[in-house]
Amino acid sequence: MADWRSAPLAAADAVLCTYAVKLTLHQKEMTPADLERLRAQGFDDRAIHDATQVIAYFNYITRVAEALGVEPERFIAPWGAPLG
């Protein structure tokens, strides 16, 4: 699937993806309501913290790589490409 919004995700996974997109693209618009939506799907504060750390790390490292012109590793197949 090219877009997670059309994937058959569990409600908790969809809410987490929505959170990740907002944190990535609209971080200044984050509110306590974003955390409450995660809690309503069963995420506790530790899980929210851990997810936020992972999302933020990937945002950070991607920006560093892009800024420095780091080339992707050639031994890793692009997402969705057949293996082998």
Quick recap:
This protein has 84 residues and is mainly alpha-helical. 57% of the residues lie in helices and 0% in strands. The protein has three helices and no strands.
Description:
The protein has 84 residues and is mainly alpha-helical. The protein has a single domain (4-68), classed as AhpD-like (Up-down Bundle), CATH 1.20.1290. The chain contains 3 helices and no strands. The chain has helices spanning 11-25, 32-40, 45-68. α1 packs antiparallel against α2 and α1 crosses α3 (45-68). The radius of gyration is 15 Å and the shape is globular. The two termini are 20 Å apart. The mean pLDDT is 93.
Helices, by number, come to 3
Strand content: under 5%
Q: Which structural class matches the secondary elements?
A: mainly alpha
Radius of gyration: 15 Å
Main sheet summary: none
How many beta strands in the DSSP annotation? 0
Helix share of residues? 55-70%
Nearest-integer average pLDDT: 93
Name given to the CATH architecture: Up-down Bundle
CATH topology: AhpD-like
Amino-to-carboxy terminus distance: 20 Å
Give the low-confidence spans: none
Instruction: Just give the CATH class.
Output: Mainly Alpha
- The figure for the number of domains is 1
**What coarse outline follows from CA principal-axis ratios?**
globular
Helix and strand run: HHH
What's the CATH H-level homologous superfamily? Answer: AhpD-like
